[in-house]
Target: homoserine dehydrogenase
Amino acid sequence: MTEYKIALLGFGGVNRALAQLIADKNERWAYELGFTLKIVGVSDLYLGSIINKNGLNAKELAAVPATQGAFRTLPTGSAEPANETVIRFSDADLVAEATFTNPVDGEPATTFCRWALEKGISVVTTNKGPVALHAESLKKLAERTGAHFEFEGSVMSGTPVIRLAQELLAGAEITEFKGILNGTSNFVLSSMETGLDFADAVAKAQELGYAEADPTADVEGHDVRLKVVILANEFLGAKLTPSDVSCKGISQITADDIAEATKSKARWKLIGSAKKLQDGSISASVSPQLLPQDDALAGVSGATNAITFSTNILGPVTVSGAGAGRYETAFALLSDIVSIHKKKIKTGK
Amino acid sequence: MTEYKIALLGFGGVNRALAQLIADKNERWAYELGFTLKIVGVSDLYLGSIINKNGLNAKELAAVPATQGAFRTLPTGSAEPANETVIRFSDADLVAEATFTNPVDGEPATTFCRWALEKGISVVTTNKGPVALHAESLKKLAERTGAHFEFEGSVMSGTPVIRLAQELLAGAEITEFKGILNGTSNFVLSSMETGLDFADAVAKAQELGYAEADPTADVEGHDVRLKVVILANEFLGAKLTPSDVSCKGISQITADDIAEATKSKARWKLIGSAKKLQDGSISASVSPQLLPQDDALAGVSGATNAITFSTNILGPVTVSGAGAGRYETAFALLSDIVSIHKKKIKTGK
Model:
């Protein structure tokens, strides 16, 4: 039985959910997936850090209170974060990177990824920053050291859109994609269809935990823009940076706009899309679009996300599912590890 | 560069489209997928057969007229089918099986699959019969001889639902699925929403080539039942035969039923589904169901197919796309070959 030693960077909802899954499912995974996971280190800006090369108790970790310096209360724990030490000295085979997204330079997450990959430690991440801004160099680095860099959770949480396009649509010739890639803004638009205006819909989303105190990144399309960059670079051979993607959010959509759309049996959706043009260049944008009722994305309501890939051979393929959620995103990390496990068996590395 | 020698059984729309793709795309595939395909034999009940171990001209094959015994007009061709000879003596590495579906015993397709697998020749098929009725024994046979048995095209043509569930949802714990798995019946139901009654909607589907002269298998749910058997056995650990699946079609749905549903913002859909029950047993059925507007399957119109997998960890994941079509189904065969290619690299076999 293969056992991977894993270090967790960031211990908010996602890696905490992963720890809980490890506590609950390791035995099942041994049988079903062919491996188990052993947590050997955790570092979190707020909770502190902890290392044990012989393995930490996943259940105990998952139950640590969300109070400042809480890791101090565990044996071998400290109130101080120690990302570098956890990456370099915990003997991990894998690093699960789930710190906050910095949309400007991807730091410090990108540096964490580099430290791990340089040592030949594979990285799985749910963090859009390193992927949107530095995927190419991180993938090259991984290749050089025999490590793997996987990032299914950077788009649509655990809903397997990246691997679907990469592996299952190989040969279908993807020419274009368009998606509802942000749950908050889609929830706001769905709420406005019940008669709320934009401000009230945002307030409702905040109340229900779908929107942050500052909802700008979600409703102005900045979050979607990073995802468009990730997908366009990965599947259309683009080399986009966020500033290459025109970006308009939903804050100008009025209750009247929504009512009018409903009357004409159409729906406003915040769409992130990219397309390969005849001359080989890529056109990419984020903008509110009025979708006719029979568009595969028109029926996607609430916090659900969805994406349609257009292909030459197979026509359009649409996938919808969770776009966020702690366990849903932790599953993305698990699915990345499943993928690495398969590749390791394959190459014997 | 890996070159696979492939034999085609059945040369209706699907394998003819595959031949056309080989003619058009081989060069691209060498670069993109890491292999090329060389057709070494074809057998068809109506057109006859042809073998050339050094490779047949794919473009010429794709252009053969659809007249009885047409292969006779090609060098080395014959007006007689010769399935066994093509399987056993064409030196093929792969057999693409796309003959007609026999829902009672899966023959003669199952025997064709056996002949190939016994010789260690991998089989890719779009044929529901052998998969629904004999998947377990064919998979065991393949394992014993080091061959592969792949059947993505048996459900939803090239839309990659089988591999999505098998590979990308590994670890997500699928508990249930429900799908719109037959394009003809869904087209009929969609047409009835424009005011046609059942008989007129069927006639329209026949006119447009969506329904066969005898539409029974499609509108009475028999086609969906085979697909439910395939999916339940593959993903829920069931051991179902078609008679285990209760089956009711759409022929009793009236124009009034449809109008009433529309009034209450719901839609009738022919749903194939299966569910793992608390006691571990499997409940599976095919029946018309009234879906509320916000069901992920409610918006799936016309000949499009879709399936929702319910999972413990990730919630529901829905995929929609082509459910039929020559090139769409030929892509399923290609995607099976991509998968086999990856496994061959992995095991070195």
Q: What stands out?
A: Chain A has two domains: 2-159+327-347, 162-321. The mean pLDDT of chain A is 96.
